[in-house]
Design a protein that fits this description.
Blueprint lengths: L4 E6 L3 H10 L4 E6 L2 H10 L4 E4 L8 H11 L4 E5 L4 H9 L4 E4 L4 H21 L2 E4 L2 E4 L4 E4 L2 E3 L3 H12 L7 H9 L6 H15 L9 E4 L3 E4 L2
Parallel strand pairs: 1-2, 1-3, 3-4, 4-5
Antiparallel strand pairs: 6-7, 7-8, 8-9, 10-11
Helix pairs in contact: 2-3, 6-7, 6-8
């Protein structure tokens, strides 16, 4: 499991938000949204590791938020709701939630379940040892990158950056999010990201269509075109 966890809490009850903040581990960065529309906006702006979602939200309800997130991502989602009837719980799980906790709740149990989901995801990612895109293959066990079965020499940081892009294909990331997720520290220099991407492009070359694998999205950032 990663050292720094980004948690999105979509909840309109201030007392519950404060309770979650109080009990969250030190390595969790928490962003909150107080209605469904704001929650979807935050989710589209940043990359998170897990979502805690209320169902009875203003503007856009939790079921719709869940469906819209699931259209784009397999991120772990825990529903936190006072809806406690069997059919309501089943509906939430059927729509794509990974877990369901009924209010009132124990915040220590919430974070125990959060950590359990993240551990499960971590084990699943480790099982997926090879990532392939077009004629490019990345092996997480051997830390090797092959193009047309020929090895490409990358530094450790270049490998981590390419792995990040290949795992998150077709998602646009700003430079500061790339820095946070790949370098995992508070130091930020946008030139570092640009230099590393330039080096990777030079080493891996073009895809089979003659285009860059890592594409610049003007005014926004970069994405891996998979």
């Amino acid at each position: 499991m990663k050292n720094n966890i980004r948690l999105l809490v979509i909840e309109d009850n201030e007392e519950i938000i404060d309770l979650i903040k109080l009990y969250k581990p030190d390595n969790f960065f928490m962003k909150e949204a107080k209605n469904g529309k704001e929650g979807l906006k935050e989710f589209s702006k940043e990359i998170f590791d897990i979502v805690v979602l209320d169902l009875m939200l203003p503007i856009v309800d939790g079921y719709e938020v869940l469906e819209k997130i699931r259209e784009k991502s397999n991120i772990p989602i825990i529903i936190l709701s006072s809806k406690n009837l069997d059919f309501e719980i089943i509906l939430g799980l059927d729509k794509g939630a990974d877990d369901y906790i009924v209010k009132p709740f124990n915040p220590m149990e919430l974070f125990a379940r959060v950590n359990a989901l993240l551990r499960r995801l971590s084990f699943s990612e480790k099982d997926n040892k090879k990532i392939a895109c077009d004629n490019l293959e990345l092996n997480r066990d051997s830390c090797e990158v092959l193009k047309n079965r020929k090895k490409i020499d990358l530094t450790g940081q270049e490998f981590k950056l390419l792995e990040f892009f290949m795992v998150n294909k077709n998602i646009v990331f700003t430079k500061n999010i790339i820095m946070e997720r790949v370098w995992e520290n508070d130091y930020y220099d946008e030139n570092v990201v640009s230099v590393y991407i330039s080096r990777i492009r030079e080493k891996i070359g073009k895809n089979s269509d003659g285009e860059n694998y890592i594409v610049t999205i003007r005014g926004l950032g970069y994405k891996f075109d998979g």
